Amino acid sequence: MIVGLVGEIVKKEPTKVHMLVGGIIYELYVSLNSAALIDKSTTKLHATFIVREDSQTLYGFVDQNEKKMFDQLIKLNGVGPKVALAICSTFRPEEFVEVVRAKSIESLKKVPGIGPKSAKRILVELGEFDLGTEELPQSKAHHEAMQALESLGFKKEQIQKVLDTCEAADTATLVKEALKKIQKL
Fold it and tell me: pTM of this prediction?
């Protein structure tokens, strides 16, 4: 799977670039926001590679959060790569988080190809959309421990109470400490 490319931009258009990587030129579709940030000949782009029956397409992103946003959007029912890229072109990731939090159908209708019904459906399906911005090491370990304990079948409320009392800093130790405390309950 291709998750990123580093190479020389040999052709740049508003919504796509051609990148020379190791003797091969790749075509990547980009949002208008990413295209505006690409100004040097050698660059790094995060990528999403979509393989369909009739095509293999690369989508490139300067910002990792924009890639996360795109990847989340294409998972939604009725939102394909073109609509997701249009959303990425209309909103920067931070702006989109605010649109979702505000449940702003009017803002989302500004995106070409999205009407009121689609906007409402997207907002409902996204629910509590967050980019998961870079976390502090302890909170990252806390989040990973939470996921691990949830996968073991424990209830979220129970896990949260126990993890709040744990003192470990790394994920593995935090999970072990939490399991001991949960067994005592």
Answer: 0.67
